[in-house]
Amino acid sequence: MGLLYEVLSYNKVFVEEKQYKQYQSGKYPDKKLVILSCMDTRLVELLPKALNIRNGDVKIIKNAGATITHPFGSITRSLIVAVYELNADEIMIIGHHDCGMGSVEPKKLIEKIKKRGIPQKRLDILRYSGYDLEEWLKGFDCVADNVLHSCEMVVNHPLLPEGIPVHGLLIDPNTGELEVIRDGYQEKV
Length: 189
Known about the structure:
By secondary structure, this protein is an alpha/beta fold. Helix content is 38%, strand content 16%. It has seven helices and five strands; from the N terminus they run H-E-H-E-H-E-H-H-H-H-E-E. The chain has helices spanning 3-16, 43-51, 74-84, 106-115, 120-128, 133-137, 143-155, and strands at residues 33-38, 58-63, 90-96, 166-171, 178-182. Helix 2 links the parallel strand 1 and strand 2. The longest helix is centred in the N-terminal third of the chain and has 14 residues, at 3-16. The radius of gyration is 19 Å and the shape is globular. The N and C termini lie far apart (52 Å).
């Protein structure tokens, strides 16, 4: 049985037994907080538990490395929507120790892309179009610096209202211990 069918089979029982009722909440975050975090599998349950958040408390955006790479990309847009449309009053950017994005080597990743069947011709089209694929795929050297960089992208965004605290944290993916590397109350926009 493929994974999709396994998921659908479980989902059918989940809905029939009304297990969803324990997770029902409104669309606005009760704690008026939006979090950008890494997509690391170790954080799926650990992050909410370590922060004492439950369904309905916060908006969580996840991507590789909790990284904002462009001030007008989809991550920043989601943060802006959370602030203006969903009433979030604070932003947390939470990276983690032992992040896979810290070890991403673009040349090796491009080789894996080719091995999965993407022809060199497609890669050449990107290069000829002026797109730097290696730059786009690169990771980071220091997770704390990456979180601070992402915080600065938000803090300096022209559409962010004054007074929104932007916090930067690191989480230990084994214990859930948090480390504050930017206290948004101390460093107001």
